[in-house]
Design brief:
With about 130 residues, the protein is α+β, with helices and mostly antiparallel strands. The strands form 2 sheets. Strands 3, 4, 5, 6, 7 and 8 form a 6-stranded mixed sheet that branches. Strands 1-2 form a two-stranded antiparallel ribbon. The chain is globular, with a radius of gyration of 17 Å. It has 3 helices and 8 strands; from the N terminus they run H-E-E-E-E-E-E-H-E-E-H. The chain has 2 domains: about 30 residues, no CATH class; about 90 residues, YggU-like (Conserved Hypothetical Protein Mth637, Chain: A, 2-Layer Sandwich). The chain starts with a helix and ends with a helix.
C-alpha cells in the first residue's frame, strides 16, 4: 500500500528532475518549476494574483506562475497597478520596465519586463522566492 505512492513520486521526481533528496527527512523535496520566456517585447513570465489579501507579498510559485498577493480591490485596474508596484519593489526594477500585457481582467496575468537580461531577471526572482 505504501510502496505505490512512493514509486509514483520517485518516477515523477526522476522524470522531472526538479527535486532533491532530503536525507534527514528521507523524502524528496520537490522544488516548484518557474520559467522566464523571451519574446519580441522583452522577457515574460506569468503571475497568479490574489486581490484583497491581508498583506502585499510574493508567496511562491503555483502552476508555473508567481503567486502574488495584493491588498487592492480588483476594480478599475487597481489590483494590476498594485501588482506592478509590488513586483517593481521586490525585484528592484522601475515600474516603467514592467507591464501587464495579457490577462488584465483575470487572476492569471502575463508580465513583460523590458531592458533586462534573462539570467539577471531569473536571479532576482530566485532571490525573492528564497526570502
Amino acid at each position: 500500500m505504501y510502496n505505490t505512492p512512493r514509486r509514483l513520486l520517485l518516477a515523477a521526481a526522476v522524470a522531472s528532475l526538479i527535486c532533491k533528496w532530503n536525507y534527514t527527512e528521507r523524502r524528496f523535496l520537490v522544488t516548484p518549476k518557474f520559467s522566464v520566456k523571451e519574446s519580441k517585447n522583452g522577457l515574460t513570465f506569468d503571475i497568479q494574483v490574489t486581490p484583497r489579501a491581508s498583506r502585499a507579498e510574493i508567496t511562491g510559485v503555483q502552476d508555473d506562475a508567481l503567486k502574488v498577493k495584493v491588498t487592492a480591490l480588483p476594480v478599475e485596474g487597481a489590483a494590476n497597478e498594485a501588482c506592478i508596484k509590488l513586483l517593481a519593489k521586490e525585484l528592484g526594477l522601475k515600474k516603467s520596465q514592467l507591464e501587464i500585457f495579457a490577462g488584465g481582467k483575470s487572476r492569471r496575468k502575463s508580465v513583460v519586463v523590458k531592458d533586462m537580461a534573462k539570467t539577471e531577471l531569473e536571479q532576482k526572482i530566485e532571490s525573492v522566492l528564497k526570502k
